[in-house]
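Deliverable D2.4 — example input (structure tokens):
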């Protein structure tokens, strides 16, 4: 079992920046991928970014490419979000996954982009 705890959400003005953090604990040797997803009100949860645990290979949704950066430092995964837009407002979830298993979710952290 892997436990995930997110932090770093909040209210930011359009054009601003936030950094989300996620700390993984438990059987972290079972992790193959770490990712960030988000869910806006009334919408389905969507993929934002991911990183491979061993190779650090990263992937991004088209909507955040060039603005968001995912990184990992030991058991901590970060999502640096720059040039934030109102459309980025959502609950952001940290997630982990084994080789072929389902995603395991954190509790989520609210990000609100508004003037």
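Example output (designed residues):
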């Amino acid at each position: 079992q892997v436990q995930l705890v997110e932090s770093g959400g909040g209210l930011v003005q359009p054009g601003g920046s936030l950094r989300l953090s996620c700390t993984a604990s438990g059987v972290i040797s079972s992790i193959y991928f770490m990712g960030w997803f988000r869910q806006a009100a009334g919408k389905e949860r969507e993929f934002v970014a991911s990183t491979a645990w061993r190779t650090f290979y990263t992937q991004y949704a088209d909507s955040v490419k060039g603005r968001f950066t995912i990184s990992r430092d030991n058991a901590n995964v970060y999502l640096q979000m720059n040039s934030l837009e109102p459309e980025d407002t959502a609950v952001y979830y940290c997630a982990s996954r084994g080789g072929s298993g389902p995603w395991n979710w954190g509790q989520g952290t609210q990000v609100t982009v508004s003037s």
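The chain has no helices and eleven strands.
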